Automatic annotation (TrEMBL):
Keywords: DNA damage, DNA repair, DNA-binding, Glycosidase, Hydrolase, Lyase, Metal-binding, Multifunctional enzyme, Zinc, Zinc-finger. The keyword Metal-binding applies. Its cofactor is Zn(2+). Belongs to the FPG family. The lineage of its organism: Bacteria, Bacillati, Actinomycetota, Actinomycetes, Mycobacteriales. Coiled coil: none annotated. Residues 2-115 form the Formamidopyrimidine-DNA glycosylase catalytic domain. This is Fpg/Nei family DNA glycosylase. It comes from Mycolicibacterium komossense. SMART domains: Fapy_DNA_glyco, H2TH.
Length: 290
């Protein structure tokens, strides 16, 4: 799933490549992705792209006073092309859910633009067209952006929360922008167990968590921004230290990276760095060890 750094990089890519161009056509191959109908997507046609924005893990293309906003969910992506195929999309065929075709008055023969795609059978990609981003209920409900939080604000956000820290920092209503992958990385850098109780962290642990959150996300943004959209997934994978590294040695201590699995996802951690050497029982087993 694209998280804060990748979505920021995609927004940057759109700012550099789409701003100033005109929307020539919007094709929808999957009606289920569109969550709003007023205004219709045809309202974008003829408008000039004026910006691109990020709200946590939500990406928006601004066209005049309208915002075409998407949440890429687990298997969605934005695929940019300097010259899109002229062939119309076939509804229900292939991974493309929506296509935005742009035009450049200076180069009328070109047809740049992008596709919103989604792999797999679980179709969760969502698109809204609104005149105010706060009209997207999920954006209106977001907590503070992870990169905007100071140490005191992070402590306040976690105060009294009895949930496990892994779950809490990925709750978008508490802290916005962090998902499964970067939460693993943040907790590894902070040397915190994923099962530590959020509201019971010591001052030293809170300070370590804040430093890790800012450093991990900032580093990922720096590495990602400026990359082509097609390169971002590989860039993300190359920068991960424990997430999706089950069975490999921890790059800090050399211990074996372990995994805890759930029904539809898993997370990774280093026992030596994070849990005092204790192994957290896999959810596929009968109990958990804290």
């Amino acid at each position: 799933m694209p998280e804060l750094p990748e979505v920021e990089a995609l927004a940057d890519h759109l700012r550099r490549h789409a701003v100033g161009l005109t929307v020539g056509r919007v094709d929808i191959a999957s009606l289920s992705v569109l969550k709003t109908f007023d205004p219709p997507v045809s309202a974008l046609i003829g408008g000039t792209v004026t910006g691109a924005h990020r709200w946590a893990k939500y990406l928006g293309l601004q066209v005049g006073d309208l915002h075409l906003i998407t949440h890429l969910s687990r298997a969605g992506w934005l695929r940019w092309s300097d010259k899109l195929s002229p062939a119309p999309l076939k509804p229900g065929k292939g991974p493309i859910a929506l296509r935005v075709r742009l035009s450049d008055p200076a180069n009328p023969e070109d047809a740049p633009g992008f596709d919103l795609t989604e792999a797999g059978t679980q179709k969760r990609l969502a698109v809204w067209l609104v005149d105010d981003p706060m009209k997207v209920p999920q954006i209106a409900a977001l907590g503070p952006d992870a990169l905007s939080l100071g140490p005191g604000e992070l402590a306040a956000a976690l105060q009294g929360n009895g949930g496990r820290i892994k779950t809490v920092i990925t709750d978008q209503k508490v802290i916005a922008g962090i998902g499964n992958a970067y939460s693993d990385e943040i907790l590894h850098v902070a040397k915190l167990s994923p099962f530590a109780t959020a509201g019971k962290l010591t001052d030293a642990q809170l300070s370590a968590l804040h430093d890790a959150m800012i450093s991990v996300l900032t580093d990922a943004v720096v590495r990602s921004v400026g990359q082509g959209a097609a390169m971002l997934k590989g860039e993300k994978r190359s920068g991960l230290r424990v997430h999706a590294k089950t069975g490999l040695p921890c790059p800090v201590c050399g211990d074996t990276v372990r995994e805890v699995s759930f029904v539809d996802k898993s997370f990774q951690y280093c026992p030596t760095c994070q849990t005092g050497g204790r192994i957290l029982a896999d959810r596929r087993m009968s109990k958990l060890l804290k």
